[in-house]
Design goal:
The protein contains two helices and three strands. It is of the alpha+beta class. The relative contact order is 0.18.
């Protein structure tokens, strides 16, 4: 299935699978916390300090590709929600 026709869940699943299988051991020791823009069809990737930085680098090299965004050393690239406060703010 081409990434052009793949839904976001499948893109994420394939990206995580590729990362776990081929990139985790290579990237985590030196790049933990960096963001990764991964082309799941080719395995090519770019790293950046932010998601936008990684994506800009990847798109500059491969403008027609679709990328999965991951964070090196973390299960998710970010989080959605609010932070709970204990006590008074």
């Amino acid at each position: 299935m081409s990434t052009a026709t793949m839904d976001h869940r499948e893109l994420g699943r394939r990206g995580r699978e590729y990362y776990d299988r081929f990139l985790r051991e290579k990237l985590e020791p030196q790049h933990k916390g960096k963001f990764l823009a991964l082309d799941v069809e080719t395995g090519e990737y770019e790293l950046g300090d932010t998601t936008l930085d990684a994506l800009d680098r990847a798109e500059a090299k491969h403008p027609d590709s679709v990328f999965c965004i991951l964070r090196v050393g973390y299960r998710t690239a970010g989080r959605i929600g609010i932070q709970a406060w204990r006590g008074r703010p």
